Amino acid sequence: MKTDGSVSQVAIPEEILQRIESRGINRRDFIKFCMATTAALALPVTFVPKVAQALEDNRTPVIWLEFQSCSGDSEAFLRANQPTATELILDLISLEYAEVVMAAAGHLAEEAKHQALEKYHGKYILIVEGAIPTKDDGAYCTIAGQSAVASLKQAVAGAAATIAVGSCATSGGLPAAAPNPSGAASVSEIVPGATVVNLPGCPVNATNLTATIVHVLTFGKLPATDRLGRPLFAYGKRIHDNCERRGHFDAGQYAETFGDEAHRKGYCLYKLGCKGPETFHNCPTVRYNEGVSWPVMAGHGCIGCSEPGFWDTMSPFYRRLPKVPGFGIEDTADKIGIGLAAATAAAFAVHGVASCFRKGNPKDESKVIKED
Amino acid sequence: MAKKIVVDPITRIEGHLRIEAEVEGGKITNAWSSSTAFRGIETILKGRDPRDAHHFTQRFCGVCTTVHSMASIRAVEDALKIQVPDNARLIRNLIMGMQGVQDHVIHFYHLHALDWVDITSALKADPAKTSQIAQSISDWPKSSTDYFRQVQARIKAFAETGRLGPFQNAYWGHSAYKLEPEVNLIGLAHYLEALEAQKDMIKVHAILGSKNPHPQTFLVGGMSIPVDPDSQNAINADKIAWIRKLLRNARTFVEQVYIPDLLAVAPAYLDWAGIGGGVGNFLACGDFPTDNSPGTDSLFFPRGIIMGKDLANVMEMDETKITEYVTNSWYTYSNGDDKGLHPYEGETNDKYTGPKPPYEFLDTDSKYSWVKSPRYLDQPMEVGPLARVLVAYASGVPEVKAAVDYVLKTLNAPAAALFSTLGRTAARGVDALILAQKNELWLDQLADNMGRGILEVHNPEKWDPATWPKEARGFGYHEAPRGALGHWIRIEDQKIANYQAVVPSTWNAGPRDAHGQMGPYEAALIGTPIADPEKPVEILRTIHSFDPCLACAVH
Amino acid sequence: MLEIHYVWQWPVRIAHWINALCIVALSITGTYIGAPFSLGGGVNPYLMGWMRFVHFAAGYLFLVSVLSRILWMFIGNHHASWRAFLPWLTPKGRENFVRMFRYYTFTGNNISHESGHNPVAATAYLGIYALCLFQIFSGFALYGQFAPGGFWDSALGWIFPLLDNQYMRLGHHGVMWLLIGFFINHIYSAWLMDIKQKSGVMSGIVSGYRYIDPEDV
Ligand code: HEM
Ligand code: HEM
Ligand code: NFV
Ligand code: SF4
Ligand code: SF4
Ligand code: F3S
Ligand SMILES: [Mg+2]
Q: How far apart (Å, rounded) are the C-alpha atoms in residues A313 and A325?
């Protein structure tokens, strides 16, 4: 077994490299890509050959279904970097169905899907983007005359693994925001028994999607997840605990208004409504668009886009705490609290004054021994 | 007897679009455009903080991401009479400009090209001849024989696995494909290159907007991305230089790849300059303010209306003349479905009355779509790059005139050729080119401001809802990649009382109105030849030329 | 004759004052955490860091103190007992409750005299203990978020899929105001009863002794 001299620790078998080259892929690119992927999965370098092997194996069939979505997650996929969308589509997976990019249309597209569902039964990875409406027998989203509910159930049944991408698919997202006009639900709500890996975000970070796919290809199993089915490698920590502005938070240095000096200096955005302290996501470490930036870095607070129900619980977005249920839009918990405390104090002041003038002392005066 | 065909899903678009059409004598004689998905975001917005609205509306669409943030904050700024700082105007122009370029590149290569380019034919191309053609039409450096041989080998190896993935089951080999193998190979190579290029150019959004899709630095009153030459946490000289490089690369790609490809593919399809004309009325709301004066006079792309293909007569566009019908859409209006409503009074009461899924055909005699039918003075209007470019062309905007005349001259076609499927696709290229060239100017102006110590990006005056009037209403506009976009907001007691959006694809994809007038998609399909009703690639061509976005259209 | 009763055993008194201290400290630091004032540039005093440190340290102390007091409810004398917080379980308790309630609302002129809590106060304390437990629960659940998979997250994190993180925070923040409301009420009532009952209500919680006329009880 020869190794590529340039990266001595990484012993990707020569046979694999040759086969890769015969498919028109540059070997150095491939090695670099395997290393990056290994790193993205937080694995030691000794895993590089295993990753390489997994990637080299026959392309895993992938079916991508889109329901009540904005296609933002599909677009995020097109911006993927390690691997790129091209590498994924040509070399790593076999994208059997994906409305945004597939060449076929109409009944021929549906035929391609049904063939894949049958031929790769139990073997394909199902990726779902968008929420699923339940109102009126699912008539609020149909494709080729079939309801999203029915398409989803059918596709999940034969999937080796189901990955829900974006907050709409993982928790209903935007369509499910109050008052949820279409009865939108998440993948897990529609198919309760199924094993679903949830990759929330609005949109999903492409890096987290590709890392999940590669994780499955490499280990033949799904990554470990938290209580909400989110992989720990991407959602295992809060934004706030990895944030580059955390030093300013701890120091008590906050931007007060957008564009003020503190804001320009990169102080903490807590007082401008940042939801980093309540959001589990790897934005600060992975960032977006090949690591260029992420919301807090660009001066806007996190809106908590990877948390279930964030459209309702994290809004108003420029305030840190949600609206107190039953109160007006501008009533904060503090305004209400101060009001309550003041009212209590006032009530007792009145009570106290009244008590002073109160006739008839309840302590039976006859029992008190008066001293002269 | 006419044969009714259904194309559902229309793929390589955003969202869920279904076309039903009647074909007789090899031509489409009747057509219905329907969107089959609804979310109800206008309803969701009611009662929320107007300053939050742009986060919600931006998610109308992840393809033309940013555009609904733009229109939304403009609507709120209009309602509250907020003037944004000059830097915010420039950053917004840059974000909008790059959105236009990148969206058009993706559309041309990844959503539209495969209607004209036959990948299987590319495998038969001669790489040397391909190289020759490529070098004759452009200075783009990736044009050697070796390069095209490599691309061909890669796709060949891919095809030989027998698993074509996203390219399977398409209409390959269809008689309507007319390009020679070598041009097909160029198209294929650039399909792959564009996939890389688009994700680089959009880094401009990441730098200025934190990420793409769904940048997160828009604010009512300005932007939240700080500019400060002396800060490491703001747009500084280093970031300006980075953006400049990205802008330049994007421009080079458009000038040396996109436009030459467009001009190389078009001659084989000149018959499509006579197909797909549609309603012939055009509406542009205009965009890209060139200075900070209020009003619409400073817009680089002017606002205007063209009726009945009459380029000699550009009329004023007045938003109060816009109404939306739901006569054939799955909604009800409290005062009857046969009357159009202006968006300030607009309603979104969903009521599905179509067939219960699974179904084979829609009941096209009654309501048949989730898209409403917007009308201007009761007329259906086409919006989009074509409308935008036509209004600018007819108004004599020099850059636009030069670019359009160049394209027409190269293709040896009259201006009337623009009213077509091919014209729509060409106008999109012109739009991309002009925006790609404009972007650097806005960046220069931003840098200039910074150099002079002008660092303001947000106007905080009306940030606090306590400063707002009890009632206010505003109109926000934007020339999105797919055309004229309008958001209308009514604010009462610091909350959203009503929110209505009339979106480019609502204009274009809408069904018939109360007077039975077809929407632009429907009208454009009439007369389209269909060689093989089982493989209606011609429908895709005309429909894709509009660049449909149905999540936008319905929202 | 007035008798001197040893009512509040030392664990009750110590727990009471530790609790009171913790609540004050937690409210001050919590208010800052909830709405910090900016220090701007220049110095780097690590102010939020300290506030949070004090909050968490006081939080632990509060946890121990409240739990000890709850333990003492099963060990201590009948005034300390958990039964003392459920006065309306007995007919006499109900009667006294009504009497006290009427007294407080100016609809009656008699007060009940007991050596322990008066029944209305006891009921309020029950509520206060519930609020304290909620603060401890929500506080430690939020605290656990910095270390998913750690002790606090494993013990309490299960709550979040049921009750959203943000509402938990809002609740934690809002209950502070309820506690502040109680505080005002509590000190006023103690003062009022001290004057009216003349049984050493105020000093009792320091010394443990109260002065009771057996005929009153
Ligand atoms: C009387 C008891 C307490 C009061 C009045 C209190 C008050 C507060 C307040 C007002 C906040 C700010 C919440 C916001 O606006 O987001 C807060 C935050 C917090 N409190 Fe408490 N708290 C109490 C007990 C506890 C306890 C026992 C713990 C347990 C360790 C705790 C842990 C926390 C944590 C973790 C936070 C969030 C701080 C951050 O991560 O920045 N609290 N508290
Ligand atoms: C000046 C400060 C305070 C004084 C003079 C005071 C006085 C008293 C008195 C006299 C009692 C016994 C009441 C009765 O027999 O009905 C008592 C009980 C109690 N106090 Fe306070 N208190 C003070 C501060 C606080 C504070 C700040 C808190 C917490 C918010 C608090 C919480 C309690 C509780 C929970 C009880 C029930 C005692 C138990 O059985 O554990 N106190 N206090
Ligand atoms: N139609 C549309 Fe959009 C655009 N461009 C919206 O305004 O695509 Ni998603
Ligand atoms: S999660 Fe966000 S990006 Fe994805 S479909 Fe939903 S709204 Fe669009
Ligand atoms: S900016 Fe947000 S995430 Fe970062 S430290 Fe401040 S509050 Fe936390
Ligand atoms: S808004 Fe979303 S993208 Fe990251 S910083 Fe917040 S989770
Ligand atoms: Mg609308």
A: 11
Is A181 at the interface with chain B, CB within 8 A?
A: yes
Report the distance separating Cα A36 and Cα B434, nearest Å.
38
B14 is catalytic: yes
Asked if residue A45 is part of any domain, the answer here is no
Residues A258 and A361 in one domain: yes
The reply to whether A172 and A252 lie within a common domain is no
Predicted local distance difference test score (pLDDT) of residue A9: 52
Distance between CA atoms of residues A116 and B387, nearest Å = 41
C140 Cα nearest atom in ligand 1: 29
Q: Does A1 fall in a domain?
A: no
pLDDT at A37 over 80: no
Q: Is B40 helix (H, G, I), strand (E, B) or coil?
A: coil
Are A244 and A217 found together in one domain?
no
Tens-digit pLDDT profile for residues A142-184:
999 999 999 999 999 999 999 999 999 999 999 999 999 999 9
B314, containing H or E segment: none
Half-sphere exposure of A127 (CA within 13 A, CB side): 29
Whole-angstrom CA distances from C186 to B275, C85, C189 are: 84, 15, 5
CA distance B277 to A161: 46
Q: Is cis: bond before A316, omega within 30 of 0? A: yes
Give the whole-angstrom CA distance, residue C143 versus residue C134: 14
Report the CATH number at residue A338.
4.10.480.10
Query: If you search the block for the tokens 């992975």, which residue do you land on?
Result: A286
Q: What are the E-state strand segments in B141-295?
A: 218-219, 222-223, 282-284, 287-289
Q: Is B64 designated active site?
A: yes
Distances (CA, A) of B412 to A276, B259, B269, B270, B309: 58, 16, 13, 10, 20
Mark yes or no for CB contact A329/B457 under 8 Å: no
Q: Are residues A99 and A221 in the same domain?
A: yes
The single residue of B12, B18, B35, B61 carrying the catalytic annotation is B61
- Subunits with 3+ Cβ pairs within 8 Å of A are B, C
**First CA to last CA distance, chain B:** 37
Structure tokens at B105: 């590149």
Of chain A, the percentage scoring pLDDT greater than 70 comes to 92
Helix (H) or strand (E) holding A96: strand A93-98
Cα–Cα distance measured from residue B33 to residue B554, given in angstroms and rounded to the nearest whole number: 13
Residues A244 and A344 in one domain: yes
Please give the angle made by the CA atoms of B339, B340 and B341, to the nearest 5 degrees. Answer: 120
Dump strand ranges (E) for chain A.
Answer: 60-66, 93-98, 124-129, 132-133, 142-143, 146-147, 159-165, 184-185, 196-199
pLDDT in tens, A2-15: 344 444 455 788 88
With CA atoms as reference, report the closest residue to B87 among B215, B234, B200, B259. Answer: B234
Domain residue spans in chain C?
3-34+61-75+132-216
How far apart CA A156 and CA A191 sit, in angstroms, is 8
Choose the final residue of a domain: A187, A216, A235. A235
Split into its structural domains, chain A has a count of: 2
- In chain A, the residue whose alpha carbon lies closest to the alpha carbon of C36 is A252
Closest residue of chain B to A245, computed from CA coordinates: B233
CATH 1.20.950.20 fits domain C3-34+61-75+132-216:
yes
Domain carrying residue A333: 239-365
| CB-defined contacts A:C, below 8 A | 136
Average per-residue pLDDT in chain A?
A: 89
Interatomic CA distance for residues B457 and B84, integer angstroms: 8
**Averaged pLDDT of chain B:** 97
SS3 content of chain C, % helix, strand, coil (to 5): 70, 5, 30
Q: First CA to last CA across chain C, in angstroms?
A: 13
CA-based torsion, A223, A224, A226, A232: positive or negative: negative
Asked if residue A167 and residue A303 are part of one domain, the reply reads no
Same domain, A85 and A165: yes
